[in-house]
User: Fold this.
Amino acid sequence: MVEAAVIQHPIATLDDARDCAKRIQAHMRQNVMGRDDVIELVLVSLFADGHVLLEDYPGSGKTTLAKSLGHAIIDDLPKDEIPDFRRIQFTPDLLPSDVTGVMVFDTNTSTFEFRRGPVFAYVVLVDEINRASPKVQSALLEAMAEKQVTVDNICHKLDDLFYVLATQNPLDSVGTYPLPMAQLDRFLFKIRMRHIDRESELEVLRAWGKPREVQQLPRVNRGDVVASRRLLRHGITVATAIQECLVDIAQRLRDDRRIRQGVSTRCLVQAIPALQTLALLRGRDYVSSADLEHLAV
Assistant:
């Protein structure tokens, strides 16, 4: 098998950052059919340093989506021994240590050492997040909010790239623990995935069981994604009018009696890098009203 090429040049301009995002997008589109809109939002959340909650039906391709994202990124820090992708199946009997890691006694040295849990990865797929108890959900909350886990009063840092793609089934609510508002607020997007269109579904059936000619697309370094995040914060202009529009939308939602809880200030802060990323993907160095309308609707 021929190993795909890797971007070697540093991320110095917005064009470099855009090229980095497009390469990841190409990897995901090659493996996931009929989900271009979802792929775009996942990319936006990745480069905006946010997380995504997918409300989907079983067999909709969420694992393939997350795997293709993780495998498009190559570790440029091999000594940290962090994998590109991990999947955690949340169940009612899951413990926080099953996610974060646990202290293990080493008989050779007569000391305890920390054994990392599956949360130590670049891209983490949390399957059926509402199946686990609130105690486990709170352990994941710390990882998402602070990019660290605490075990035996010792904090262990996660990688700067750490990204969570969580799912929940909208049909089956028996034996589930609804996510509290504090945890929902940690997700940049909640995406409701629908079944793919007819032509895409037919293409999946035609390709099933046949050998695929997978094109070896160039992959990207984890450092390129982290550098792109920093670059677009200063390289994409956000006008005062856009900021004022965000605040006005938030005020309208808070005042609407039909809405249980309005938008938090943290949501508004997270919206800025999301808008900047969308502008980057669309080839601009400024956020437009079209970007705001696209994400708001």
